[in-house]
Design a protein that fits this description.
The chain contains six helices and two strands. The protein is an all-alpha fold. Helix 2 runs parallel beside helix 4 and helix 5 runs antiparallel to helix 6.
Amino acid sequence: MGNLIFNIIATTILALIRPIGDKLREKAGGEIDKSIDFQSYIFSFTTIELWLSMVFCRSKLNFYFFCFLLIASFFYNAFTEDFLKNKYADDPRLYKISTISVQAILIIYQLIFFVTLEDGHFIDSLYKREFQIAMIWYVVVILWLSYYLSNKLLIRIFEDKDIYRKIFITLQIVFIIIFIAFTIYNYININRFDFYLDRM
């Protein structure tokens, strides 16, 4: 039960930290920069994917994904500092292209995560009933983050009704559909997993 409570508390904090931060900035009269929206989106969805991997006990995949993020972050920072920010410092396409790239990476990661999950996969993080509750809760958190953070991005980064906005909306819908479909499938076929704690 302890792991389930930790997951619920941690994901709840993740889901609420940005809205609370926005309220506090509004009361203080501060403005929210585009970079904050961009960073919040990356941090929230990357973190939720990594936590989900831990729930599913995909430590090796988690490690590869984390290493990839570090390498990608290094090259992205070098690229934006040395080229994009000098040539396109005021170009709104910088955040648009960056956000869409992150979406594509998250979708690819999700597909790899789900396709490589085999029957009989060993799970020792939660009991079966706790696992089912966690999956439902992760869907709620993903839907809330998608709604709140996507709206912020649509207002400040994808405000123009151009091709970038359409791609962003499409990719976010694809991300949600894949996640929900995967969750429903595994909830219905929960017995495909081997729950170590239920055998103790």
